[in-house]
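Database export, one record per block. Field names are fixed; values are copied verbatim from the stored entry.
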Amino acid sequence: MKSMGMDRPPTGHDVELAALAAAGDRRAYGELVRRHGSAVRGLLRRLGADSATADDLAQDAFITGFEQVAEFRGEGAFGAWIKKIAARLYLKKVKREARLIFSDTVEPVEEITVRDASGDGAAASRIDLDEALKTLSRGERLCVSLCYGADWSHAEAAEALNIPIGTVKSHVKRGLDKLRAKLARPEEGTRREAHG
C-alpha cells in the first residue's frame, strides 16, 4: 500500500533537493525544475532567445543539470548554477549559428509599449524590462543579461563570449545607461525641471 506522503512533492532547501537528486531522486530534481524553470526561461529570453528557443534551451539546461547535479556543492545558489548552464548553452547555440554580433547598432524592434496598470490612463505606467532590453544592441543585451541576470563576473562573460574584458565592461555600462534612461519615469524629469 502506498503512503499518503509519497504523492507530495519533496520540500526543503535547494541544497537538500540537489543532494537527493544526486542520489537519484527524480522528484526532488523535478521540484528544482519547478522552482527555477521560469527564471531560467526569463534569462534566456533576456539574452535574446525567442520563447520557443528559450523553452528548448531551458529543458536542455535542466537535463544537463540533472546529469551534473552531483557537482553542485551548494556553495552558491542552485538558481545561479543552473542559469550559468543555460547561458552557456545559449552562447554555444548563438556561436554555432554565427549570429554573435558585437556592434553598436540596435536590431530593429517594435516600439516599446507602455502599459497602464490601472487601465484608466491616470495611474503611473511602467515599461517592461524585457521590452527595454530589446532596444539594446546584441552585445549590450548579452553582457548586461549575463552579468546581471546570470550573475556572471565580467571576466566570466569575457571568457564565454571570447571578447576582451574591457569590451564587456563597456557594453554593460552603455547598456545599463540606456536601460536607466528608458526605464526612468517621465514625470521625474518634469519634477526636476519644476524644482530647478
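Remark 1: The chain has a mean pLDDT of 80.
Remark 2: DSSP finds nine helices and two strands in the chain.
End of record.
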